[in-house]
TrEMBL record:
This is HAD-superfamily hydrolase. GO terms for molecular function: hydrolase activity. Keywords: Acetylation, Hydrolase. The lineage of its organism: Bacteria, Bacillati, Actinomycetota, Thermoleophilia, Solirubrobacterales. The keyword Acetylation applies. It holds the Pfam family Hydrolase. The keyword Acetylation applies.
Amino acid sequence: MTSAAQDGPITTVISDYGGVLTTPLMGAFQKLNERYDLPDPALNLALMNAGEKAGTNLLFDLECGRIAEDRFLEILGAQLSADLDRTVDLSRFSEHYFAGLEVNTAMVAALADARAAGYRMGLLTNNVVEWGPRWRPTIPVEELFDDVVDSAYVGTRKPDPAIYVLAYERLGVTPQECVFVDDFAHNCEAASELGMTTVWLQDPDAAVAELRELLAERGAPGQASGALRADASVSIPH
């Protein structure tokens, strides 16, 4: 589903990673539930219960680089074990999680075509420091993107407006020049409020078609308003 904040020229494409450049995240979590023999709500309930005890949102802390993955999994595994009255060892969680994801080759191809046409390209991902060696080899990051903004390294995450500002400022463009692709509605809404055109990925094939149509109608490759600014920064709360 496309949301157009305005109808000016698009010079820049910014994409999410998980659920956009991969198959849907829900499928990976379903496979995790099967592997660990978990009822559907168990992971979410354990995360909520553990967060209440800790007085923080543990997932947000993980994706903002404030807690190490092994400590996060230790806490979550202990909570699941208590909730289910049996031992749940999550030490291989990330290995199993990424085994449940495949590359969305059609979207990667669409981004590669945009790159070749001369669009400014950015990746904006809520991610985990320790997951870099797992996700980065799945796509040609350096070939596709001028810049990568990873929540785990900048201390904030979507849908905080600050991370979108960081993304478009480092790309040297205005939000009105950008189309942003994400699989979560609230992330797209935050981008739209800043002036970006958005593609909310609900059906992978439909989203690829929407992106290609947008670029065919409003694309202005090679006409970005400013230079790349790898040193751009915004005030990020910790």
